[in-house]
Amino acid sequence: MKHILLFISILTLSACGGGSGNKNSEIEESVDEEKIFNLQNIRFDSKDYYEGEQITVIEGTRFEVQWVSPTAASYKIDLYLSTSGKEYSDSNKIVGLKCGNTSFSLCPNATGEVQCGIADNELSCSIEDDFLGSKRFQDKDLSNLTFIIKGCDALNNCDVKAFDFLVESNTDA
Hints:
Elements: H1 2-34, E1 40-44, E2 47-48, E3 54-58, E4 62-68, E5 75-82, E6 93-99, E7 111-119, E8 122-127, E9 130-136, E10 145-153, E11 158-168
């Protein structure tokens, strides 16, 4: 009888021990998933766009860029305009913003937006009356541009979204 009770006890303990390993790995996976910084709801002129889609703007007009960060904690947003594919670098950076904290007045929470315009081979951006930056580019072919949004949290977890950017001539000019 002792042997049967001992055997049942061992089976019960090993069954309980096997289940806790799975719970720990599930908890670890969910913690890892929370660490990922993922920009959401990228919008151009109040219309949702997904990475890789084409945004068309008219030269000489302004357009609005909006995003939602996964956190209201401090984060940064960089905007780039690339004439050579889907790459970003300091040489094609237009704007760099610190966001997500109530002390940052330009984008104080998880939702941010800037107004941009393109004219005479220059892209410039602002928030209301605050000029943020501009970038001139030499490429006269405005049909093969890439607009890139890069967001990073305080731990340097980043998300990069790239959009084909087509600038059409203003026919009213």
